Amino acid sequence: MDIAFYFNEVDAQLMKNEKGDLGSIIEKHGDGELPSITEGVQIVLFGVGESRNALSNKGSEHGANYVRSYLYKLKKDTGFNLPIIDLGNILGGETVSDTYYAVSSVVAYLVKRNCIPVIIGGTQDLTYANYLAYENLEQVVNLTTIDRKFDMGVSQEEEINNENFLSKILLHQPNYLFHYTNIGNQSYFVDEDVKDLIDKLHFDELRLGLCRRDMKLVEPLVRNSDIVSFDMSSIKGSDSPGNELAGPNGLTNDECCQVARYAGISEKVTSIGFYEYDPEFDRQGISAHVLAQMIWYFIDGVNSRKGDLPLMNSKNYLKYRVHIDGFDEDLVFLKSVKTDRWWMNVPFPSPKANRFKRHQLVPCSYEDYQEACKNEVPDLWLKTYQKFL
């Protein structure tokens, strides 16, 4: 498959970079030549100029190059050893569906080759296109969004847009979504019916207040993700004004960078997108700079991966068994001796759940293990088990 025809070159004004800048080690699409995509772990950036179905942030289709102008000037770290490629921008197709097809085709092409796509939007409905890539790969996935609300929309009959794409993912057939998590939602933006649906489907949420209280709660949730989708409206407006819906509350810039690094160090995350940056509302490039730093932290995280995805018989893990009254089998926890990170093993209750095998080991925290030691079944264990039924 030739993906070159999907892309416009990186702006010529951005091609030259100073020694020591991150841009100096990024292989860019320019002079009529697309960088070669080889088999193996590498980070692949590309922008998507699509916002036609958006209800807000129409200017985000022009955001990618603004972000690049700051990203390229950030300093490279001595630990940045993995290749980084910038393919340029996918411009809007004849129809929005054409753009979605291009994005899903490119993401599937990259993930199949163990590359990690980093999408710079564009509006967040592009998450739907990112998700469709995994249908092409026939891979059941976990999706995590960082957003101020759940983008469910108001009617199933609505055309897909940046405020209802999640409902389109949930209703899409065949369904390849195993689990969904939202981080940073603000209760006054969440309809009660939507909250009830999230609970009924055994999905996860981590409200803004809980994030702010303890950012360590975010790490296992992000570690459990295949796809991460970041809405810039989740950042409070005083920290990041470049969004039409920017509000007085939200995550801070440094918290967002921390979330991005959590995504980077997760062995499971295979694609990430940053959406809803609208340069029309930005002041002095603050939001473009914030987004650039988030990508920098994601790159730093990927380069810091320790290869600690659990294998049940691996010598790199300590196994803990906890008896729970009323359970026939013990709860099994694994702790990585490399990173001190924890997982819990959730058994299949039926043979039909075998298609979910890669989701059987669920990232968790030490607190989940402590809860089990008190003869209480962790909520995360129950939610996962119920999905297998």
Q: Tell me which CATH architecture of the largest domain applies here.
A: 3-Layer(aba) Sandwich
The Cα radius of gyration reads: 20 Å
* CATH topology assignment of the largest domain: Arginase, Chain A
The helix fraction, in percent, is: 25-40%
State the end-to-end distance: 38 Å
- Count the E strands: 14
Structural class: alpha/beta
Main β-sheet: number of strands, strand sense, barrel status? 10 strands, mixed
Strand fraction = 15-25%
CA-based shape: globular
The count of helical stretches stands at 11
User: For this structure, what is the CATH class of the largest domain?
Assistant: Alpha Beta
Low-confidence blocks of residues: none
- CATH superfamily annotation of the largest domain: Ureohydrolase domain
Oligomeric state of the chains present here: single chain
Mean pLDDT: 95
Detailed description of the structure:
The chain has 2 domains: 4-303, Arginase, Chain A (3-Layer(aba) Sandwich), CATH 3.40.800; 317-388, no CATH class. Helix content is 29%, strand content 19%. The protein has helices spanning 63-71, 96-112, 126-136, 165-171, 192-200, 208-213, 218-223, 253-265, 286-303, 366-373, 379-388; strands spanning 7-8, 26-28, 42-49, 84-91, 115-120, 141-146, 177-183, 204-206, 227-231, 271-275, 317-322, 331-336, 342-345, 361-364. The strands form 2 sheets. Strands 1, 2, 3, 4, 5, 6, 7, 8, 9 and 10 form a 10-stranded mixed β-sheet that branches. A 4-stranded antiparallel β-sheet has the order 11-12-13-14. Helix 5 links the parallel strand 7 (177-183) and strand 8. The longest helix is centred in the last third of the chain and has 18 residues, at 286-303. The protein is globular and about 65 Å long. The relative contact order is 0.12. Keywords: Hydrolase, Metal-binding. InterPro entries: Ureohydrolase, Ureohydrolase_dom_sf. It comes from Salibacter halophilus. Belongs to the arginase family.
